[in-house]
């Protein structure tokens, strides 16, 4: 029997929902209103937005002082390219994990053995190096680390079963990004360092700081775990029997992917794509730290109006509204798809 | 066309040998049923033939050609799945035409074939619907349609009727049997339902723990079970398997008597008390607790009026007692 709810109860819950909704919406509302006020009106306390005059001057000033279109272009390049590259990597990854998972048995033991050997070798190498009083420079150290840690570690991850790999991917999202800022900053800023010390080629002038060459791969890698996770959950929903049926019907791998899997997973791919667009559009931590002009996206555009010389609330608000408008519009038109994507798996 | 030979086929998942070693020949045009309890490896065996699983060792020949390492698409077999496995984003027409499209057939010719198949399976009115808009029976027909259009060397059925309700199952069973009479193509059918096996098969393969217990026609298995497993598995209700003094008297470790081969007699039989009496109208199943041979099941006529607590005497019909040795095998 369906639960019956009294009118009073329904009313109470609706009221509560509205109150919570309004509280959550308030900052955006405030921003939206402040953007249309003069700087002094926005700043004056107590605020009286109702009686003060409306104005569009902030938008004009913001556009005049910083090239909005350029920032939109930068953001679009980073967002679109990183989503494309992300999908290119994530679809095959999620596909193989969903439909050809590595078996749980045996690989577990061999995986741990691998890890043991890796660390054993690493310790031995360093022991030998220091015993011969060898002072490695940065370049040599970097190459050695790459060879003895990264390469076997990726092989190790490859030998693991699917569940472990998925968890490992998620774990990269557990680390606070600030923890990785310094190494990544150094890679961006002084990537020539390794080669310079070796004297093979002097690339130290070519750094990838504040360039798409740096930002696009970074953003791709940043969202890749989430992309793979989401696609994996989608693909998991596709019964493997249907793929087997396609195989029995004479479909080659390409036909199986093109005619059966992709059409069935299309809603999932679309909403994953959309989520990735939104996440990378709004990303601020890395973009604020690693760009300042040539590849600076909209988050940097907003931050320009929060400066040590003072807070320009009205202009800050205007910039924020301009920055979120495009993604808000995209999100609004695809909200059905997005909600479906975010709740997929939980609710069938 | 359509002869399938398995030679020393072995399948192991890690340490576990699901199928230790199987040799089997399926002749062209046969309707062969793999039957056995769940987990006996019958579906795995079918998937090995289909190519959806790789053999650990041994060879599979289809039409005299070694197909062991061929991918499923290259084996020329068609399969009907328990879950139907229809393509949800395609109409019935496109579903049935899919294998033809994959084979690169001319669309006009393919459309003709689809129409012909739809006619055979009474699907004409549903061709433009999606699988989601069909009932279970209709979906199963679409799955069969998809299998027949490409004129395969053999059909593989993996418990195709187990998702249907009882009445539909009986009619689909008959449809598949008729289809076999019309097409005369080899069919391999996996089921755990021994009634399906008995009614449909030319040849039944009884599997237990990955081993073939017996291969034979339905009546051969019913009349001459090779061992106690087959004796207990084929026939409904199950054969009474009796151990102890009565078996020793006949020089066997175990004797088997089918419920329908037991007569209720006035004197001189195994005396017992009726503990359960099930009236089905045409038959009455009695569960009788005896002192000599334990609890046994009897199939009596529909008019029998025994109730719970009645005392009866039971005697097996002459020549209908199966004798099994200590290893479970039948004495010749």
Chart the SSEs and their pairings.
The complex is a heterodimer of chains A (348) and B (332).
Chain A: H1 7-34, H2 39-43, H3 57-65, H4 68-99, H5 107-131, H6 138-159, H7 162-171, H8 177-189, H9 193-198, H10 212-236, H11 240-248, H12 253-282, H13 285-290, H14 298-303, E1 306-307, E2 310-311, H15 313-333, H16 335-343
Antiparallel strand pairs in A: 1-2
Helix pairs in contact in A: 1-15, 3-15, 4-10, 4-12, 5-6, 10-12, 11-12, 12-16
Chain B: E1 4-13, E2 16-26, E3 31-35, H1 42-50, E4 57-62, E5 65-66, E6 77-80, H2 92-102, H3 107-120, H4 136-148, E7 154-158, H5 166-183, E8 186-191, H6 194-200, E9 203-208, E10 211-216, H7 218-223, H8 228-233, E11 240-243, H9 245-249, E12 254-257, E13 262-265, E14 270-279, E15 283-290, E16 295-301, E17 311-316, E18 322-324
Parallel strand pairs in B: 3-8, 3-9, 6-7, 7-8
Antiparallel strand pairs in B: 1-2, 1-4, 4-5, 9-10, 11-12, 12-18, 13-17, 14-15, 14-17, 15-16
Helix pairs in contact in B: 2-3, 2-4
């Amino acid at each position: 029997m369906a639960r019956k709810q009294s009118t009073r109860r329904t009313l109470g819950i609706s009221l509560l929902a509205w109150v919570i909704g309004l509280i959550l919406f308030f900052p955006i509302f405030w921003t939206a209103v402040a953007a249309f006020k003069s700087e002094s009106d926005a700043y004056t306390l107590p605020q009286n937005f109702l009686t003060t005059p409306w104005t569009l001057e902030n938008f004009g000033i913001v556009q005049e002082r910083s090239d909005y279109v350029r920032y939109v272009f930068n953001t679009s390049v980073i967002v679109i390219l990183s989503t494309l590259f992300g999908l290119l990597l994530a679809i095959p990854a999620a596909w193989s994990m969903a439909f050809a998972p590595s078996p749980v048995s045996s690989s577990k033991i061999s995986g741990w053995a691998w890890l043991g050997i890796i660390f054993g070798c690493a310790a031995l190498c360093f022991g030998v190096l220091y015993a011969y009083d060898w002072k490695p420079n940065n370049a040599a150290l970097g190459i050695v680390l790459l060879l003895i840690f990264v390469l076997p570690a990726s092989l190790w991850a490859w030998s693991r079963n699917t569940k472990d790999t998925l968890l490992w991917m998620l774990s990269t999202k557990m680390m606070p990004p600030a923890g990785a800022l310094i190494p990544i900053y150094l890679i961006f800023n002084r990537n020539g360092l390794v080669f310079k010390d070796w004297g093979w080629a002097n690339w130290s002038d070519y750094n990838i700081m504040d360039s798409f060459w740096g930002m696009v791969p970074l953003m791709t890698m940043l969202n890749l775990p989430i992309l793979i996770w989401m696609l994996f959950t989608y693909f998991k929903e596709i019964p493997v029997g249907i793929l087997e049926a396609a195989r029995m019907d004479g479909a080659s791998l390409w036909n199986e992917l093109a005619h059966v899997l992709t059409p069935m997973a299309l809603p999932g791919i679309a909403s994953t794509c959309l989520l990735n667009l939104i996440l990378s559009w709004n990303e601020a931590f890395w973009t604020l730290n690693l760009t300042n002009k040539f590849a600076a996206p909209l988050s940097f555009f907003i931050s320009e109006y929060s400066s040590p010389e003072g807070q320009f609330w009205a202009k800050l608000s205007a910039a924020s509204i301009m920055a979120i408008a495009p993604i808000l519009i995209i999100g609004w038109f695809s909200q059905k798809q997005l909600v479906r994507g975010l709740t997929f798996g939980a609710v069938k | 066309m359509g002869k399938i030979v398995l030679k020393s086929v072995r399948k192991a998942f890690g340490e576990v040998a699901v199928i230790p070693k199987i040799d089997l020949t399926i002749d062209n045009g046969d309707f062969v049923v793999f039957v056995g309890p769940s987990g006996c490896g019958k579906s795995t065996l079918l998937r090995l033939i289909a190519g959806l699983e790789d053999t650990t060792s041994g060879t599979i020949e289809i039409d005299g050609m070694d197909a062991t390492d061929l991918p499923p698409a290259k084996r020329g077999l068609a399969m009907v799945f328990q879950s139907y496995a229809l393509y949800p984003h395609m109409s019935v027409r496109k579903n049935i035409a899919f294998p033809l499209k994959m084979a690169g057939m001319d669309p006009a010719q393919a459309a003709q074939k689809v129409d012909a198949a739809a006619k055979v399976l009474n699907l004409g009115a549903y061709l433009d619907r999606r699988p989601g808009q069909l009932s279970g029976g209709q979906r199963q027909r679409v799955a069969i349609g998809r299998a027949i259009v490409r004129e395969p060397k053999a059909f593989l059925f993996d418990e195709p009727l187990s998702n249907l309700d009882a009445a539909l199952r009986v009619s689909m069973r008959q449809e598949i049997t008729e289809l076999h009479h019309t097409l005369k193509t080899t069919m391999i059918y996996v089921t755990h339902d021994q009634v399906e096996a008995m009614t449909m098969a030319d040849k039944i393969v009884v599997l237990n723990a990955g081993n073939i217990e017996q291969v034979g026609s339905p009546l051969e298995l019913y009349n001459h079970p090779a061992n106690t497993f087959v004796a207990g598995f084929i026939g409904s209700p199950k054969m009474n398997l009796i151990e102890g003094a009565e078996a020793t008297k006949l020089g066997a470790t175990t004797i088997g008597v089918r419920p329908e081969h037991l007569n209720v007699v006035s004197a001189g039989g195994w005396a017992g008390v009726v503990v359960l009496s099930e009236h089905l109208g045409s038959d009455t199943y009695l569960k009788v607790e005896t002192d000599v041979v334990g609890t046994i099941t009897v199939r009596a006529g529909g008019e029998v009026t025994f109730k719970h607590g009645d005392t009866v005497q039971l005697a097996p019909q002459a020549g209908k007692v199966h004798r099994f040795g200590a290893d479970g095998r039948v004495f010749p």
